[in-house]
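Database export, one record per block. Field names are fixed; values are copied verbatim from the stored entry.
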Amino acid sequence: MTNGVWHMEDHHIDIWPHKHNIIGVNVSAITYDEALPVVIKAAKARKSVSVSHLAVHGLVTGSQETQFRSVLNEFDIIAPDGQPVRLALNLLYGTKLPDRCYGPEFMSRLCQRAAKERIGVYLYGSQVPVVEALRRNLIARFPGLRIVGCEPSIFRPLTGAEDKALVQRINDSGAGIVFLGLGCPLQEKFAHQHKGKINAVMVCVGAAFDFHSGNKRMAPEWMQRCALEWAFRLSQEPRRLWRRYLPTNTLFLSKLLLQLTGLKSF
């Protein structure tokens, strides 16, 4: 074990990556190389585990909403999805993270390992055309990948019977990894509610469904490196996203400054 992370040779995965408080939300100081073996090991054992990737929007939402913050802080891994979140970890705690742990990229790396290890994958979320295109694209990119289930969201709360049937479908499929593309905060709430019920690692990846299906364009790499992905996505969907990015980015910066200067604790 290094830096609080269990690697493949360890016998247990009871200790997860160390977390640090950023404006009230506990975020895992973790890289792709540290997260991947831990998740794969849990998936092989079909452990009920919750993993998410938070950018600024999710972090600010958790900071403002007590109930959602409690949900996030019970996750096994909350990876720094956005560059600003990685930079906050480095500034506040000196974690020296060289890169973020981006949900779409982590999904690709997990699928590559799952194909090699013959771990079943289940896709849940988005709309029928998106999730079907996602399934085709992943199988084409990762030969041997076993997608053992694939279904869209129904965009309303599930009834008790529907929820029980969904859990049974996922567990009966033998999936070790369930990718959730319900969007933040719905996917995190789903994973939290189904911890201990779904016998698999539930990985919240949000927009990765749209990106890997070809439904939406991903920001150029240089914009991702410069923490400008939000600007690219805003330019693609200004009407939908301006209410998300402009207020939340301002709130994040102001709250982070308060935490950095010690003027306020979260």
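Remark 1: Residues 19-213 form one domain.
Remark 2: The first strand starts at residue 19 and ends at 22.
End of record.
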